[in-house]
Design goal:
It is a single chain. The chain is of the alpha+beta class and 284 residues long. It has 2 domains: 118 residues, Alpha-Beta Plaits (2-Layer Sandwich), CATH 3.30.70; 131 residues, Sandwich (Immunoglobulin-like). The strands form 3 sheets. Strands 6, 7, 8, 10, 11, 12, 13, 15, 16 and 17 form a 10-stranded mixed sheet that branches. Strands 2-3-1-4-5 form a 5-stranded antiparallel sheet, covered by helices on one side.
């Protein structure tokens, strides 16, 4: 068995990340010669998924084929791995050495492969426009790095419990989410029809001061035990517009607030990538 390990010390993976990683790798090799010539006997599947580590494994026809695949992925200064960061829409989280890719094998004949992500320059958002702790993980709450589109013109963000960076700090002790604010253009407010939670219940919303580009979903009063047991959804329903056209900048930036509005962990979510149906090659 031959495996690729994706690791990050400062980013939280999940089963979905692992599935997208496996799908991308299978799709990459499906387009090449390996599947057609029977050099991969079993496709990549997710074997492990922890917050800081995901592992996908496949069975190659031989150790020599596994080495050739590793060389192929490492070619051109790991250009394919950089494409993977983009495909998985995780570059902003994994760049600058925050992410690494390692190849492991049951065979001792294969040369080790280790890639640390390249440096990157990320735009610093001024959002939200208040004095609060924007650091992700400052509170034990956050928003998933992917948002989904379960139906046309319906875009859902997952609000969930996360480990606080410092559980003993004032922000780390917070147990209730008061509101979530989104960095959405004022000019497009009429293109938002409604906002609902995962049960379909309508959530109250409001806009910030003119020019702030701030769309508020409040009050929420979601507690830490509630979100630990089951994450909630905030689903924005538009009149037909793509959410990416409404949000300011790349992706959609959102902040989670406590009651005192002193803590506001902020992150940018991207639309969840779709793994093509043919990414998982059928085997006889």
């Amino acid at each position: 068995m031959h495996c690729y390990n994706l690791a990050s010390a400062g980013f939280s993976f999940n089963n979905r990340t692992c599935g997208v990683f496996a799908g991308y790798t299978n799709g990459l090799l499906t387009q090449d010669w390996m599947f057609e010539e029977g050099l991969i006997l079993e496709p990549f599947l997710c074997y492990q998924a922890t917050p800081n580590f995901v592992q996908i494994c496949a069975t190659y026809a031989s150790a020599e084929v596994a080495q050739e695949a590793a060389d192929y992925i490492a070619a051109n200064d790991f250009a394919l791995v950089e494409l993977m960061w983009d495909y998985m829409r995780l570059r902003r989280y994994l760049c600058g050495g925050q992410g690494s890719l390692q190849f492991s094998s049951e065979s001792d004949c294969i040369s080790p492969l280790l890639y640390n992500s390249r440096a990157c320059a990320l735009d610093q958002t001024p959002f939200p426009f208040c004095e609060c702790d924007k650091t992700p993980g400052s509170m034990p709450f956050g928003i998933d790095y992917y948002y989904s589109e379960p139906a046309n013109s319906k875009f859902c963000f997952t609000v969930l419990a996360v480990p606080a960076n410092d559980p003993t700090s004032s922000c780390g002790k917070i147990t209730t989410v008061k509101k979530v604010e989104f960095y959405i253009q004022d000019a497009v407010r009429r293109q938002i029809k409604s906002v609902v939670d995962k049960s379909g219940k309508t959530l109250r919303t409001s806009w910030g001061a003119s020019g702030d580009n701030t769309f508020k979903v409040t009050p929420l009063s979601w507690t830490l035990p509630q979100l630990t047991a089951a994450p909630q959804l905030i689903c924005i329903i538009t009149t037909g517009a793509e959410l990416s056209d409404l949000c300011v900048g790349g992706g959609c930036t959102a902040s989670v607030f406590d009651d005192a509005q002193k803590c506001c962990p902020t992150s940018t979510s991207q639309l969840e990538p779709v793994v093509p149906d043919d990414a998982f090659k059928p085997f006889a």
